[in-house]
Amino acid sequence: MKRLQRTLAVVLSLCFANAALVHPTHAGLIPTEQLARSATPEQGASHARLAAALERDDVRAELERQGVDPALARERIAALTDEEAARLAEQIDSAPAGGIIEAILLVFFVLLLTDILGLTKVFPFTRSVR
């Protein structure tokens, strides 16, 4: 059992380290005009685009393969703020072919982290720190 826990810890550590290295961030000033253009009513469309992505058979199959209930994923997407939904939709759009898998893994790790923190109980194989 300890060997399994150690292996799982190593794998998760590598995953989180890889996630930190793969996505560099760039900070900069945003002109007021660009901010005004980005605050259009199309922000609500991000939720619809994410929900439509969840309706795809391949996405649903991958979620189920990862142990995530698609209904729960829909609830989580509905709970996102407009800014978070727009950012996630932008990441999916800018991802290379097959990038939807990365988005699914992102959702999986968010759900896993919230399970470990004791905020949710999605996965039966996690223990809460609370």
UniProtKB/TrEMBL annotation:
InterPro entries: PA2779-like, UCP029543
Signal peptide from the UniProt entry: 1-27
Bilayer-spanning residue ranges: 100-120
Sorted UniProt keywords: Membrane, Signal, Transmembrane, Transmembrane helix
Pfam families: DUF6627 (PF20332)
Protein name: PA2779 family protein
Species name: Thauera aromatica K172
Species classification: Bacteria, Pseudomonadati, Pseudomonadota, Betaproteobacteria, Rhodocyclales
